[in-house]
Amino acid sequence: MLPLHLSKRFVQRCFPPANRLLTSATTTTTGDRRSSSPNQPPPPPIQVLLTESAGRGVFATRSIEPGQLIHTAKPLVSHPSISSVDKVCYLCLKNTPKCSEFQVEKVVFCSEECREQAKGFYEVEKEADWSALIAYCRTRGLKYPFLAKRLACMVISGVTSAECLDILQPARLSAEMISQMEEELCLLRGAFEDSGMNDKQLTFLNIEWYAGVLARIRINAFRIELAANAYEDLLALAAASVESEASVGNAVYMLPSFYNHDCGKTLYSSGFYEVEKEADWSALIAYCRTRGLKYPFLAKRLACMVISGVTSAECLDILQPARLSVEMISQMEEELCLLRGAFEDSGMNDKQLTFLNIEWYAGVLARIRINAFRIELAAHSYEDLLALAAASVESEASVGNAVYMLPSFYNHDCDPNTHIVWVENVEARLKALREIEAGEELRICYIDASMDRDARQNLLSKGFGFECNCPRCMSND
Ligand SMILES: [Zn+2]
Ligand SMILES: [Zn+2]
Fold this sequence. Notes:
single chain, Beta-clip-like, 3 domains, three-stranded antiparallel beta sheet, 16 helices, 38% helix
């Protein structure tokens, strides 16, 4: 399966418990709008409203352009993954070298600002010995108890209230889940008690609180994948078409292992760009623009990579291809003609272009078709992308987990109009994937959108507890 790029969450199917908040829905959209001074940024063009079928939802208050940043969101609580704890900022999850001047014992901070903000609850956290909880979670592959631990430290230090997640929709918990939580709670409470906390400080820390927090984290936590951190994202970013409209591009994500045989400095070199810039792409661009096609640009980029020797012509063969109709193939012949023509006109010879026939092109397009994700170009220029790619050797996909308020109100769609990106830290950026009209509901995809209908339905039902009735699912796509 391809890596999950987007978020995991849940549709609020039931009436939310905190529906009183919704009578003044717009106040939940802006956080702080006490003053309307001209220096304040305008409120985001959204409001949280009740939907007919899915509880709360987020709606556009005016039209939104493709690629537009709709709003950002800071987490209510975040925690690095255990393997990233000495590599990313303890608070904002930004990639941070170990020798950071803000290193404190075992954790690192990216800046004085983060260290200062985390001071109160880090003081609480560092007093306790978490090794038993860590060992417990590691053997069971659990991540969410760390978010609960962080939240408990925040409550104890007084920076947040014990009820701060109550507004979020909880998952339904089974008796077995609750009994497992009792073990986790025991380890959590034990660590605090051993560090000298008294009963009064830990009053809130009972099974009702813990189970309530975990039930909310379970369906509202986002796995944070920094665009500039994940290896496969980098490759995808580098492979994404520079000509894509606005800041939204397309990319095919592949397994990192698949790149092992030829991942070297050459992969990040500008070799393929040299090939690409020699040719005149205006005919292909015009053709694609009038038809709204994006994938031929990925095929073009791939062809440049093959010609320059950084990848093989067969590199996508491991991906599952889509079934193509005769009409689709005949359209592809036109695209191929434009692609090959541009290379030929730039002086490439037949030998260099041997691979570039309709079988190759159709095979690539068939794979791109079901494996391409719309992605955000995190960097501002092609050079930035290459620099980012060259700077990273990390292959770990997820740097941590976080729970947000507003992003938790977004409902799911298998063909979403909005997505979430994390550029360099835990701050979530919600961006429009296409033009959105005033009044339209903004939806994100909780899962890997490239999966087929059955796989999506299965994952959404098991992981998030609902049956998806989005237009894409209804059309059996
Ligand atoms: Zn930080
Ligand atoms: Zn769907």
